[in-house]
């Protein structure tokens, strides 16, 4: 087994990457670095070794596939997806995937800032603008099964995670986006995903690390 995925553990770890690996039937080994307790959340287990692994830009998560070492979540997702033809089959699909890859990153970054920084003072403001983001994703998906239109791609794995997490934040946030509700159900019914989610290896939560202000339990 040459594939190895490594990350900080104490929360639902790298979920889109894990889901993609499971969907593609890729055998891989998990390794995790665990933060210390509050209030310092010591990370020396990672800092002490990060420069010894041979990564161009030491960061977590990282993925080792034989001689290939990849950091940055989107780069890891693309690397796995390229090997399994999940990066779009036409130019039109590839354009939609590129758009969603970057739009979903903006969405994720805002959510991360909320969960780890401004949750106490910024939740209300975040929820006020959330419907506009949801509306945009709903319009982009339209009546299609997947965000690239006909064919599932790696961005569907990213969007599943983000929408699922936002339902935990605000359970009715998709009430006006039936197609996104159906997208979540469709994704969860994929044979390999359904099997993984029913297994003891799947972690439903927490969705964030222990120092987060939301989703850490």
UniProtKB/TrEMBL annotation:
InterPro entries: Glutathione-S-Trfase_C-like, Glutathione-S-Trfase_C_sf, Glutathione_S-Trfase, Glutathione_S-Trfase_N, GST_C, GST_mu, GST_superfamily, Thioredoxin-like_sf. One of its GO terms (biological process) is glutathione metabolic process. Keywords: Transferase. Its EC number is 2.5.1.18. It catalyses: RX + glutathione = an S-substituted glutathione + a halide anion + H(+). It comes from the Eukaryota. It is an enzyme of class 2 (transferase). Residues 1-88 form the GST N-terminal domain. Residues 90-207 form the GST C-terminal domain. SUPFAM superfamilies: GST C-terminal domain-like, Thioredoxin-like. GO terms for molecular function: glutathione transferase activity. Belongs to the GST superfamily. Mu family. Conjugation of reduced glutathione to a wide number of exogenous and endogenous hydrophobic electrophiles. This is glutathione transferase. It comes from Chionoecetes opilio (Atlantic snow crab).
């Amino acid at each position: 087994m040459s594939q190895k995925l490594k990350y900080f553990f104490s929360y639902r770890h790298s979920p889109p990457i894990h889901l993609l690996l499971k969907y593609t039937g890729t055998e891989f080994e998990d390794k995790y670095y665990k933060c210390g307790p509050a209030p310092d959340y010591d990370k020396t287990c990672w800092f002490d070794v990060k420069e010894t692994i041979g990564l161009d830009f030491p960061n977590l998560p990282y993925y080792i596939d034989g001689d290939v070492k990849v950091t940055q979540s989107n780069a890891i997702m693309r690397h796995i997806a390229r090997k399994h033809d999940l990066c779009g089959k036409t130019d039109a699909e590839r354009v939609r995937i590129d758009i969603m890859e970057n739009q979903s990153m903006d969405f994720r970054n805002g959510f991360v800032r909320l969960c780890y920084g401004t949750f106490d003072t910024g939740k209300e403001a975040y929820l006020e603008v959330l419907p506009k983001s949801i509306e945009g994703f709903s319009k982009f998906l339209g009546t299609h099964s997947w965000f690239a239109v006909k064919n599932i791609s790696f961005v569907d794995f990213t969007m599943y995670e983000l929408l699922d997490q936002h339902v935990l934040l605000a359970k009715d946030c998709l009430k006006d986006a039936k197609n996104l509700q159906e997208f979540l159900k469709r994704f969860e019914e994929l044979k390999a995903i359904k099997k993984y989610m029913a297994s003891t290896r799947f972690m439903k939560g927490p969705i964030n690390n222990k120092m987060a202000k939301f989703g850490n339990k």
